Amino acid sequence: MNHIVVTGGCGFIGSNFIRLMLETYPELSITNIDSLTYAGNLANLADIQESKRYQFQKGDICDRPFVDSILGKGNVDAIVHFAAESHVDRSILDSTPFVTTNVNGTLTLLDSCRSHETPRYVQVSTDEVYGSLGDEGFFTEETPLAPNSPYSASKAAADMLVRSYVHTFDFPAVITRCSNNYGAYQFPEKLLPLFISNARNDQSLPVYGTGENVRDWIHVLDHCRGIDAALRQGKVGEVYNFGGRTEMTNIALTRLLLKLLDKPDSLIKYVTDRPGHDQRYAIDCAKAESELNWSPQISFEQGLQETIDWYISNEEWIKNIQSGDYMTYYDQQYGGRLA
Ligand code: NAD
Ligand code: TYD
Asked: Of the chain's two ends, which shows fewer C-beta atoms within 10 Å, N or C?
């Protein structure tokens, strides 16, 4: 594999993936297509922007002529599709961009790949398409899709389109579904960077509902290694789940963060629950372990400490984001709840 196209490479996971791939494969070159929404940040790849093996093309995945101009060059061995609207709370405020990018954008890519005979396609999806678990059990690749938020519904719709293209057109796609990622370069609307930033500034940490909802945390680089394994070894039409085997309630994680940051529990503020809040996510990743020879390598203890250290040493990165439209969103979103 010599040249791949990545969509959404200026976001959290895409930027980590591009950096890791360029480091891992000295012969590989990458074209990154990203429309730079509020979540896309060129600073996430500032260290590699001069690389001769990296090219950035600003554009929207819903724009067929634009996508055709990239995939039509004939030198693309695979496309790895990350670009999405990715935040559940935003999808509750306004679902439209989620359907536009996550569903229509995916369809545009599928059609462009088909017409240019792109040999390989990876759909980066989420465990949230499976819905919510009770106290017992795990999501497997056979778990029926039962999305509960507009975000997860749009991701499930995209997965269904990919599945239908495999079935109908022998389209060479694999789908990956992963649990909650953490690590460097995550946009500070998501739990971990938001709470690290708030705690360091002695601001409240808004815990939704009782804080007893459970998430399974995986380091972003473990996820990226899984996507790479699915890209290279995954069987067409198959789904691969990735998880970190680190289930934790939100309140336990919040307390742990405060302890590691040496801040008081009094910063915890219980706020109105997220509507339709999924209770528990937990992943069975036995299939990826046996068929892709993949397993998570980074312990939560080590990964979390490194992540905290990263946000502390990259304060400018977060400050630059917070001076943008994020603070307006944050005030609208949490102002009322915190009162
Ligand atoms: P992110 O919000 O940090 O980044 C999304 C990127 O996509 C941004 O750079 C944005 O500019 C770009 N983008 C959005 N709409 C676009 C469009 N129409 N055209 C071109 N580019 C566009 O998201 P993330 O957390 O890095 O997630 C990446 C993918 O991984 C998503 O598909 C998400 O559903 C999936 N995923 C995320 C997690 C997680 O924990 N963050 C877990 C599992 C799966
Ligand atoms: P989030 O990072 O938004 O990921 P997702 O909703 O995709 O799992 O949230 C992780 C968990 O943290 C989720 O259960 C919602 C909760 N949460 C809070 O309690 N407070 C917050 O301010 C945020 C952003 C999330």
From this structure: C
pLDDT in tens, 175-202: 999 999 999 999 999 999 999 999 999 9
- Which range marks the domain in which residue 96 is found? 3-181+218-242
Domain annotation covers residue 274 = no
For residue 22, the CA-to-ligand 1 centroid distance in Å is 20
Cα of 87 to ligand 2 centre, how many Å? Answer: 9
- The answer to whether 228 is a known catalytic residue is no
Strands 247-249 and 214-219 turn out to be antiparallel
Task: Domain count for the chain, please give it.
Answer: 1
Q: CA 105 to CA 125: how far, in whole Å? A: 14
**Is 334 a member of any domain?**
no
Q: Are 60 and 85 in contact (CB under 8 A)?
A: no
Distance separating alpha carbons of residues 78 and 279, to the nearest angstrom = 36
Decide if 47 is inside a domain: yes
Q: For 173, list phi and psi in degrees, rounded to 5.
A: -110, 150
Q: Is the CB of 11 under 6 A from ligand 1?
A: yes
Q: Would you say residue 205 lies in a domain?
A: no
The pTM for the full model equals 0.97
Task: CATH number of the domain at 57, please.
Answer: 3.40.50.720
> Pick the catalytic residue: 54, 121, 130, 151?
151
134 CA to centre of ligand 1 in angstroms: 27
Are 2 and 27 in contact, with CB atoms under 8 Å apart? Answer: yes
